[in-house]
Structures are given as structure tokens and as C-alpha cells.
Amino acid sequence: MKKKLLVGAGITGALVLLTSVAAGAQDVDPVQAVTDLGIQLNLLWVVIGAVLVIFMQAGFALVETGFCRAKHASHVVSTNFAVFGLGFIGFFLIGYPLMFGGYTIPLLGATTAPGSSLLGSGEWVFLWQGGWAGSGKAFYTPGIMAFFLYMVAFMDTTATIPTGAMAERWKWKAFVGWGLFCGAIYYPLFGAWTWGGGWLAQLGNSMDLGAGYVDFAGSGVVHAVGGVAGLAGSLVLGARIGKFNKDGSANVLPGHHIPMAMLGTFILLFGWFGFNAASTFAATDTRFAVVALNTALAAAFGATSAMFFMMNRGDKKPDPGMMVNGMLGGLVAITAPCAFVQPWAAAVIGILAGILIPISCGFFEKRGIDDPVGAISVHGVGGIFGVLCVGIFADGQYGAGWNGTEVTGVTGILYGVSDGAKQLGSQAIGSLVICTVIFGVAYAFFKIQNAIMKGGIRSEEADEIEGLDLPEMGMLAYPEFMGSHAPGLEAQQTHDPSGVEMTHK
């Protein structure tokens, strides 16, 4: 993720020079003044991007809640709400120094690493060394703080993805453990190997494989890593009651609020511009305009191709749910290659993702894997596809010196067979690591958690049938509707949102 700082003359420099002359500040170094202003603009750019990515949490909450049944709505939306804090705490205390302890960010004026890194540089550390819980001197700088805020927002996306794949049958206490583990250990592991300058990032230097593993904004590091965790958790939990018949055929368990899911998708699209464009880490790097356009193109073509794909299958209906997942699939897929491809390629990536996601959803369902919102397909499959797209569609016009290599630009096989094959090799190795090692870590975590927790990590059968809102949360999302119309529902919520205890039966 080391990017070249693009500062120099131009309008910004001219304004600084004019200001200096007007003030009579002849002792001011104009070059340093321009550099300082560039760093300040970059800091503002990254913080704005971080805020946009954090706002994506609202989008995830709406999408997942809308795609799930009403009787689980409080539980589902609460997992999306709580995971922000849980993951944040884990990343602040432990995860960040593991992932970026040995990393500097000159683009943001941070020339000193916040601490030693366990996984990024190979140095063993102890909790009292610099960087832990923001304790290092280098951490207490605007550049490091802005970078942390941006990266913690990315981490929370990874932590959120399994809340959709494992929805409607996941015990709250088990979910809490996942949120902390993801922020502290799970997300930083692959992140250190890639964005933290670890061995996957160094494949270009160590094995002459292009620029090493390249993932501009996280198709793999964020989305695929979260997607395989969702798959692992779904396998350990098993399918929801009533999802599959004895012959293996699947039943539809429709979500309760499609408009909510669609609104959430547009919120995600809005936040995704912070996700991708701000990953330049520099407002002075005008490549962010290319990134923004490519992001929008992939979203538009992804939603549209999914719509037409569904209109040519089965009952010939467009399927609003698949339109949503098609747009999200396009966004996930373009996240890795967004800075390296031309607009036509972004459109093609969106089209292919919009077709791939419905096929993937059907693939997992036929194999008895229950994913209420399609998170495994959107983020897992879409993320791996996006990682590979870097090695296919990158045009070689951007990314000079990426990961400390001597490449003049990140190049895919369409623009150079030899260089592209090397780059595709790096991308394939990274994808393989996600699907094996990282999946294995997630699966082991859920299996161990399931073994040591009393009753396991899955909700009680009676609670699942009733809905997790009352048994797990003590509160219905829709008390008027559920209380008066849900057959067999005897107990009303036991807590009022104001905090007043209630004991209605």
C-alpha cells in the first residue's frame, strides 16, 4: 500500500508561493511549504474516507436486517451495531501493532513506525513495547492516527460480513467473541502479510512475481477474508431450521423488508467511494478520480447484469435481492483492481460479478450451506474474483514501484503476457492463502468456540423458532406487529428502549 506522493507545482504550489510573498515571509522554504500543505490535504482526505467507510456500517445493518426475517430483526441489527465497538477495541489494543507496527506512512507525514511488528516484519514483541493500545510515541502523531482510523474502519467491514452469513441462529455471546477475535487477531493476520509489508507483499522481490500481492482497497484483505470466515461459521452452525428438506432441496425463507435492504445498498455505495477512492491516501494523487469512476461503473453494471441474468432464469423475474447482491458483488470485485484498470474493464468486471454472484449463491445452497444474505458469495467469491482481476485487467499505467519492487506499473495478462502472468501468479497465491490458511484459522476458531461454550455457539431450537429477538435481546424489533399477529408468541418484550423494566405476558 505504499504509494507515491504526488506533490509539486500547480495551483496549490502557486497559492502557497503567492501567500508567502504577500506576507513577506522570505525565510519560508516554498518546497517545504507545498509539501506540508500536501500532507495536510492528505490527512483531511483520509479522515473523510474513514468517516465514509464507518458510515457503511449503517448500510450493512440495513441490508442484513432487511434480508432476514422480522422475528430476528433486533438480533441481526444489534450484531451490526455492536461489532463496530468490539472490533474497534480488539484492533486498538492488539490488532493494529500486529498489522502495522513496523510500517511508516510518508504520505501522511508519518516517517517513524508506531512500534515493532509481530507479523509484518517478523520481530517478536511484548505488550509493553511501542504501538500497543496507541502507547508508542510514533502513534501519537496525526499521520498515524488518521491511518489507524482508516484501517479500523476496514477491519470492521471484515468483522461484519459473518453477521450476515451466520444470521438467525448465532448466539449473542459467541458473536461477541468473534468481534474481539477478528479485530485483535484474525483480520491483522492476512493484513500483515499484504498491506503490512509481509511475505505476500514481497512476492515481487522474493520470487519475481510482478509487484507482489496487490490489493488496492481490499477485495481480498477485507472482503474475501470476511467471506471465508462467514463460510466457516456457517459450516459450524449448520443451516437454519426449515431451510432444507430431507431430500436436500431448499426452501425460501424470505427477508421481511426488501426496501430496507435496497436503501442499505445505496448507503454502502455512497460509503464505498471512501473505501476505494481514499485508498490513494493522497488528495494530491489525482488517480482517485479514476478509482471513483471505476467504482461507480462496477456497481451499475453489476446490479444491471444480475437483473438481466435473473430475468432469463426460472420465473423470468428480476429478483430485487439479486439486484442488490449484484451491485454489491460488482463493488467488492472492483475494490482490488479499481486503481489499475480502465473504465471499460471496470464495466466488464461489474458484468461478470453480477452474473457470478447468483451462480455462486445457488452453488452453496445446493450443497446445504445456508447463507441468509448471500455474504459468502458477495464477499468471499466476489472478493477472490476481484483479487484475480488485478492480474488480468491491470493496464500497467499505475503502481510504479509498488511494494518496493522495480515495476513501472501493475500489469495484467491482457497488457503483457509475461509480466501479467507473474502478477496473476502473485494474486493466485494470495487467493489460495485466503481459501486455505485464513479459512482454516476462522474454522478452527468457530470449532474451538463451539466446543468450549456451554451449549455451543448455535442458539437453542426453541429460541430460533420463536425468533432470537426476545430470547437473546429481550426486545422485539416490531412489538405491535409481532405481539398482535405472530401465532403462538406468548411473551412480549421484557425491556423498554427507555430502560424501564417490563414483565408483560
Largest beta-sheet characterization: none
Mean pLDDT: 88
CATH superfamily, called what?
Answer: Ammonium transporter AmtB like domains
Beta fraction: under 5%
Tell me, what's the shape? globular
Number of helices: 16
Question: Can you put this structure into words, describing what you see?
Answer:
With 505 residues, this protein is mainly alpha-helical. The protein has a single domain (10-21, 28-452), classed as Ammonium transporter AmtB like domains (Ammonium transporter fold, Orthogonal Bundle). The protein is 60% helix and 0% strand. The protein is built from 16 helices and no strands. It has helices spanning 10-22, 30-67, 73-100, 142-165, 172-194, 203-206, 219-237, 258-276, 288-311, 320-335, 343-366, 375-393, 417-452, 461-466, 469-473, 479-485. Helix 3 crosses helix 4. The longest helix has 38 residues, at 30-67. The chain is globular, with a radius of gyration of 24 Å. It starts with 9 loop residues before the first helix and ends in a 20-residue tail after the last helix. Residues 2-25, 120-128 and 484-505 have low confidence and may be disordered.
